[in-house]
């Protein structure tokens, strides 16, 4: 069907009011209204894929190039033994150290296995640690083996022997905190990190000269510092500075920004940067009062994380532990990037979204902790026993 356009001649003396003003204010060619334009699909408007320049993808926060496989392997070890660690901690708090299997299936977060799976699958992997049996109610229950019960008694002795050390750790944490107070729930949540016993909340009453418990309006129990001890208010950095000054100077770097026109040599750059690095800010001071993003404030936060890691059993901590105390230690979201600028002291394992930070000088070249707390030695033995099968372990075994 052909379209016909009729054009009528209008005398100049007559003026017509248009019915569609928009067409008059924005006139378009008549053909463009009634007919479609020519197809240009045959034209190449984009560069073919095979000729495009390949650009490298930016690093994702979920991935990371492995620099130290020995320290990275520690995270894999923790992941493998997560079930043993959490199940041991949870069962130890249950009456008679026992729990119904069907209840354990529902408590997968507390017990430490992925949801949607059966706990019996994980119990079979560690027959020297866990045992299942039928109770009088004709239900299947899970508990510890006799050998594991003996190990728990041994661990309890270690806790009692190291109690004064753990108390000093908590005192130093309180002295480092912003208002010299920390919720008891946070200390309990990170108790394995510092080697604090499960019943520490009950043991606090024995040390009224150091602590007091304050009840908040919402029912939260807060642990407060009673007495400041100047002997404890000395950081590890300060102690090491007295022994080896040159080594401490190399631990941290806070470079000075300057133009390339200065043409400084390496030794001159080193001396200039040392002006920023020293002196360090005492983390037992009110460093949280410094202006945000200032040099002093960054020094303070770096020192806090360093001392925090020094108080841990394995001289390392995960992002979850760091975030747990972010309010008490005035830490920011930029903690990862802040630690990344200090590769001489810290090693960041894992990824940017789920990382662990290690103190590098506390591990040897094979990723083994140089100085081990008795609790760390016990944990190593427990992991060794957890990998054994039935018949491989006899009572009185002294495997290390």
From TrEMBL:
Superkingdom to which the source organism belongs: Eukaryota
InterPro entries: PORR_domain (IPR021099), PORR_fam (IPR045040)
GO molecular function, one term: RNA binding
Domain PORR as annotated: residue spans: 67-389
A Pfam family recorded for this sequence: PORR
PANTHER family the record matches: OS09G0473400 PROTEIN, PROTEIN WHAT'S THIS FACTOR 1 HOMOLOG, CHLOROPLASTIC
Listed name of the protein: PORR domain-containing protein
Top-level taxonomy: Eukaryota, Viridiplantae, Streptophyta, Embryophyta, Tracheophyta
């Amino acid at each position: 069907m052909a379209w016909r356009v009729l054009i009528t001649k209008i005398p100049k003396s007559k003026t017509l009011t248009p019915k569609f003003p928009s067409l008059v204010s924005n006139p378009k060619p008549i053909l463009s209204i009634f007919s479609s334009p020519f197809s240009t699909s045959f034209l190449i408007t984009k560069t073919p894929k095979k000729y495009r320049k390949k650009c490298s993808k930016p690093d994702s926060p979920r991935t990371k190039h492995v620099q130290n496989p020995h320290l990275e392997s520690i995270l894999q070890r923790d992941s493998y033994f997560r079930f043993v660690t959490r199940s041991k901690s949870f069962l130890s708090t249950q009456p008679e150290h026992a729990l119904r299997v069907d209840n354990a299936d529902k408590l997968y977060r507390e017990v430490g296995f992925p949801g949607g799976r059966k706990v019996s699958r994980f119990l079979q992997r560690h027959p020297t640690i866990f045992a299942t049996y039928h109770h009088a109610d004709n239900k299947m229950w899970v508990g510890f083996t006799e050998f594991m019960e003996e190990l728990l008694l041994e661990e309890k002795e270690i806790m009692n022997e190291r109690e004064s050390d753990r108390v000093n750790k908590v005192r130093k944490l309180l002295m480092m905190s912003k208002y010299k107070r920390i919720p008891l729930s946070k200390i309990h949540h990170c108790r394995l990190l510092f080697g604090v016993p499960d019943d520490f909340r009950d043991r606090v009453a024995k040390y009224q000269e150091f602590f007091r418990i304050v009840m908040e309006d919402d029912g939260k129990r807060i642990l407060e510092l009673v007495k400041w001890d100047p002997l404890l208010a000395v950081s590890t950095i300060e102690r090491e500075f007295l022994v080896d000054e040159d080594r401490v100077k190399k631990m941290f770097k806070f470079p000075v920004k300057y133009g390339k026109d200065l043409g400084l040599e390496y030794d001159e750059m080193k001396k200039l940067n040392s002006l920023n690095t020293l002196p360090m800010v005492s983390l037992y001071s009110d460093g949280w009062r410094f202006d945000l993003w200032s040099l002093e404030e960054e020094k303070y936060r770096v020192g806090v994380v360093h001392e925090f890691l020094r108080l841990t059993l394995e001289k390392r901590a995960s992002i979850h532990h760091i975030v747990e105390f972010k309010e008490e230690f005035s830490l920011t979201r930029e903690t990862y990037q802040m630690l990344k600028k200090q590769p001489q002291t810290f090693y960041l394992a894992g990824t940017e979204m789920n990382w662990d930070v290690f103190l590098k000088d506390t591990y040897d070249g094979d990723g083994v902790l140089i100085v081990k707390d008795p609790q760390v030695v016990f944990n190593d033995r427990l992991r060794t026993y957890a990998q054994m099968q039935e018949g491989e372990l006899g009572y009185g075994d002294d495997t290390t």
